[in-house]
Amino acid sequence: MGEIAGFDKAKLKKTETRENTLPTKETIEQEKRREIS
């Protein structure tokens, strides 16, 4: 049970960060460049 709770916490942190940080045009361009190269 403890391991699952810790894993869920880490997953929630990542989700919260993504939701709180709206991707700017610069971020989108950087992601596109990463995918190409």
UniProtKB/TrEMBL annotation:
Indicate whether Transferase appears among the record's keywords: no
Where are the compositionally biased (Basic and acidic residues) regions?
Answer: 1-19, 26-37
Q: Does the keyword Mitochondrion apply?
A: no
Alphabetical list of InterPro entries matching this protein: Beta-thymosin, Beta-thymosin_sf
Q: Which Pfam families match?
A: Thymosin
**Gene Ontology terms describing biological process:** actin filament organization; regulation of cell migration
Q: Which UniProt keywords apply?
A: Actin-binding, Cytoplasm, Cytoskeleton
* Location of this chain's protein in the cell: Cytoplasm, Cytoskeleton
Gene Ontology terms for molecular function: actin monomer binding
Q: Could you tell me the superkingdom of the organism this chain comes from?
A: Eukaryota
The segment annotated Disordered runs over 1-37
Chief location? cytoplasm
The record's Gene Ontology cellular component field reads: cytoplasm; cytoskeleton
Protein family according to the UniProt entry: Belongs to the thymosin beta family.
What does the UniProt function comment say about this protein?
Plays an important role in the organization of the cytoskeleton. Binds to and sequesters actin monomers (G actin) and therefore inhibits actin polymerization.
Please report the name of this protein according to its UniProt entry: Thymosin beta-10
Instruction: Identify the species of origin.
Output: Mustela putorius furo
List the top taxonomic levels of the source.
Answer: Eukaryota, Metazoa, Chordata, Craniata, Vertebrata
